[in-house]
Amino acid sequence: MKRPFFTQSLLAIALSASLGLGAVATAFAADQYVPLPTYRVGPYASSGTLWWAGTLDYFRYINEVEGGINGVKINYEEFETEWSPDRTVEVYERVKKGKNGSPLAFFFTHSTPASYALIEKAAADKIPLIDPAGGRTESTDGTVFPYAFPLLFNYYSQASTGINFIAQKEGGFDKLKGKKIVTVYHDSAYGRETQAAIKLLAEKYGFENIQIPVADPGNEQSPQWRRVREIKPDWVFLRTWGVSTPVAIKTAARFGIPVDHIIGDVWAGSEADVIPAGAAAKGYQALAPYPGGASFDVHQRLKKHILDAGKSDLKDKKFFGSVYYNIGLVNAALAVEALRTGYQKFGNRPLNGEEGRWAFEHLVIDNARLKTIGFTGLLQPIQITAKDHEGGGAARIQQWDGKQWQLKTDWIQADRDTLRPLIEAKANAYAKEKGITRRDLSKEQ
Amino acid sequence: MSVSTQCALFSLSAAGWITRMRLQVGHWFSHGRVPYAWLVLSLVAVGVPLVSGDYWLNAILIPFLILSLAGLGLNVLTGYAGQTSLGSGGFMAVGAFATYACLIHFQLSFLLAIFLGGGVAALVGLFFGLPSAKIKGFYLMVTSLAAQFFLEWVFVKFPWFYNYSSSATISSPPITVFGWAIASPLSKYYLVLVLVSFLTWVAVNLTRSQVGRNWMAIRDMDTAAAVIGIRVHRSKILAFAISSFYLGIAGALWVFAYLGSAGVQSFSLQRSFQVLFIIIIGGLGSISGNFIGAAFISLLPLLLDFLAHTFFARMVDAGLLQNLQKVIFGSLIVWFLIKEPEGIARFISHLRGRLAVWPLRF
User: Which residues on chain A are in Cβ contact (under 8 Å) with B258?
Assistant: First the structure.
């Protein structure tokens, strides 16, 4: 008789699970709850699995090696969303009250559509939405968007850094005049988000701005690259996503566009974007607010305490130090440092959303701090204020040598002063549409 | 006809109506089940949100009701009129973007805007329904696929539709219905509940009317339907229009009552498949099947996820756990379809039939 045995063992598992859960629950009473919407299955799984391996490894390192943030451990919990905004909204609703006595200090959306969908709900619930190198660009203006943080590198900065790098290569901004810069973009919210910024910069520097869309998913791009060849551009800014990036690189090679004159954007600059393109990708460069590589200090620490101890979430160790893994690491570090800032002000206990906002708005990571946490070269120095929810706005440039990413430059800063009026104008339009009055920062401490 | 005759006729028909209602009510009470079931259902629908939290409203009940409405829309077309379609997502997008245009560009009130949005979707549906005169079955499905892709393209290509925002998304302005601000989850839920109940009631009556019988005749055999004098093409196009109207309203609610902000990605081909699965699982040609199917498709994964989180979090690898949930969900679909190919609605009615004679039969 197999069945009774099966039932019994099932019961035993369920029982032990619930007992184990009880034990875990008491242990987490004074821990900071951090829900993580993930995408380990679905079309973006190949990047998602690495991303959350990086995040989890860093949280484990903080919890187990450093004993938490100032003694407060992180109680992280994963929720699968398959990168669908609906699922992310559902997760947000499920976790917004916190868990086991810990309120929610912030919510990682990790998806621009989800950030858009949640922006009003989160403002009403007073929960900061954190979407590093993504999100709604105008939410950089924290006086209109107190609870949205497009941390580190918003879309306008991505455009501007790309143009600044091109100017550097050409030998100065005056050399940009009359140059032709083509942007090949994924025809989506993400792909269009930089257009206003590039238009402004084209007017400022006098280069010719040509925008060519690629419809999702972008498996076939011959017409687009034929047009690019007719234009004979000096540079191509590639703002694709997912499968459209390797296809773009391969098609460009077929049409004889020199690959070292194609600059990829943040989300077109990982191993997954170049390996499928094969030899055509050799020499391809990309913006890297999250550089690839496993030679940074923090990687040595993780290798010693997490990977070699068998505690890593990474299934295949060869992806240690890949771009997506490092994205996960950097984002986790930003969260950890923000929480640390908050604990210094409010005491070492779980923070709520309002305190979480204060923490992010006072987050400063300078070079000395970067050295201490082992992120020198991997993360740029960052200072966030109530007025500026981005705080960084720089990227390095990395080049694919056929085997791995080589860092070519130090941090290249975006021209944020030029872009700020554009951001404020958009924020004003939003404030007007929704009837929001700007925060008066002089009345806050 | 003189006035007095009219009055007499009117009072006669009124009397007839009252008698019918009496009979009907008597019938309900003698059989017991039906009114109580309805009573309980409406009590639950109105009462549950008062005791449950925001999570239930925002993340479960509102999307469930809207998806049910979308299922209802497609069921009119596929389940009743027998025309296949994969354009549901596209028609939902039309409803959403048209409602947005009415609100932003023409400054109309919300209720008017949403019904106009549905109307525009109906016109678009009517247009894409024209090929159904010549094309049938899977081939028709391909033309509806063209509609889906075309509509997705339109709403990205022309910035007027999303009010020239940089990211091609539309976001809900503050909405009021008869001076009542729809801002809290509870008010949104009641708005959705009222609209969905009303449209369901209309659909029930429609499918039981001449129009509905024509559709079913065409579905079962269109040549025979033509022979008995049904205008086949007109009925088909009408089905397309009404189906798209429902889908359009569902799409608008999806943006304005649920997500608050959405781009055309929310109405991709994946949404079309989701709506199609809802009616296949729930039951083609059944009204309650839409609600059951929507519950199955949208709530069961959440339930599985919840169970996984409660019992197995951190014990099993997260990626594996997610894939296991997909396996279980998939197997359940297969099992249900083997057990009852005509959907869960039929499965439940069979079950009820068996239970009625239960002690005698088993």
Answer: 89
